[in-house]
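worker-3 :: picked Plasmid replication initiator protein
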Amino acid sequence: MPKNAREDGQVDLFLPQLTTLPLRDQRETMERPFFSLSKRKRLKPIDYVSPDRKITVHVTANSEYGLATIYDLDILIYCASVLIEHKRRGTNDIPQTLHVVPYDMLRTLKREVGGRAYDLLGNALDRLQSTTVKTNIRSGDSVETTFSWIDSYSQLKDRTGNIRGMRITLAKWFYDGVLMEGGVLAIDPAYFSLTGGRERWLYRVARKHAGGAGSDGFAISMPTLFEKSGAEGDYRRFKFEMTKIVKEDSLPGYSLELESRDDAEPFLRMVRRDLSQEAVGTPSPAPVPAPASKTVLSKASADEREIVFPDGHIAHTPFGAIARANLPSPQRDYGLVASDFRAFLRQREIAYNAKNITQIFATFCSKQRPAL
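worker-3 :: tokens ->
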């Protein structure tokens, strides 16, 4: 059998199940309107221009499939997580074409596994492949890039017709965005349990803007938020939906509050729950892992301070600040430092929850070589 044929029939089985890994979202897509927020078929394009007129996003649909949705985005999050795992493991040539097991993907995304689930997965891939995005978000006014979220995909079936794997070729724009410095953020697995499209979108906005914003969080005017959403319908309906979500206040990890302004539209403030509790004098309880579990340092970007537990729970800590204070200049990739530190602890049989772990981490960072 030719080499290429053998490779086409293979699946990346060497990676551990992603249900045991922190999941990653591509940072640039978290604050601009790239996806439909509804499960209903949408053909109306998304047209977005930033308030300073410098950033544009134009998304158009295929008439047969409609726009890619916020639920289809789950597949891209899964693929981004695979890419970051390759990076963490030091893969020299990280593939743009990924071979994945649909069963593992569906389980990770908290979806049902069965015949209909595979059909829905195929529909989502069709929308991702046929949706056209045109944006200058990465290059400014001078260059506008046009792409689809995935270049192609194929299903690998056995002799009985059962799907045993999928081959997904990611768009170069998305692939580069995931692997660039600070290109991803860890997200809470509870995100996949959010059923509403607006809730999912709002969580991503909060994660992007309020994750490292301190105890004051991040506030944005409701009209500006509406423009960033790309939602269909009028502003009045959007405002009503946002008010309902704020009252429920059920986003994982972030609290929401509407702030009235004199003779102006309200602002929505998003604050990390642990910091909002501290602000009112209520100590945030420390996360308690299962008895047999261990905390692990996340592969955080430069502005994050967090630990990710084996169950995916994200707990914010001073580790990011320690790294910034002690890493030599120019600084190395924070994800690689976290990976090296985990290996360092394992080699020396040091417990992840040791009382002096922060001091050990600070010393470890101070001895790292600067990036070349």
